[in-house]
Every structure is written in structure tokens, then in C-alpha cells.
Write a structure and sequence with these properties.
By secondary structure, this protein is of the alpha+beta class. The chain is built from 1 helix and 2 strands, in the order E-E-H.
Amino acid sequence: MDELFVINFDEAIIFRVNKYSELKFYDKRHTTFDSAKEDLISYWDNVLADAKRNLSAVKKLKASDVKSF
């Protein structure tokens, strides 16, 4: 096949491109849609887990935790 799948992680989009296209903005290239989709799902699972941890920490904040500089 002469196609690759590349991901725009910020927009959660997978693009199908010609294997010989100039891909300046995409470091990861996948040979199958399924592997690209798996990579995208993994990325957003990690983002969601980090956001949940941050939200939990923020909910516990007190005024005395505020730092000055």
C-alpha cells in the first residue's frame, strides 16, 4: 500500500496520506488505521487521567497553599 495514517492529536483527527507525501508536522506515521486509532486513544486516555489527577489536587487546595513570588 502507498498510504500512511498520521494523527493530529490536538484535534483528535486521523488523516490518510500518500506514503510519499511530505509530512513535516507528523512525527508518527502508522501503516494501519487501527494502529493510528490505538495511539490516539492512548494519548487521550493519558490526558484524561492527568486531568483527573489535577482536578483532584485542585479540589483539595486551601488558601494557605497559594504561593507568592
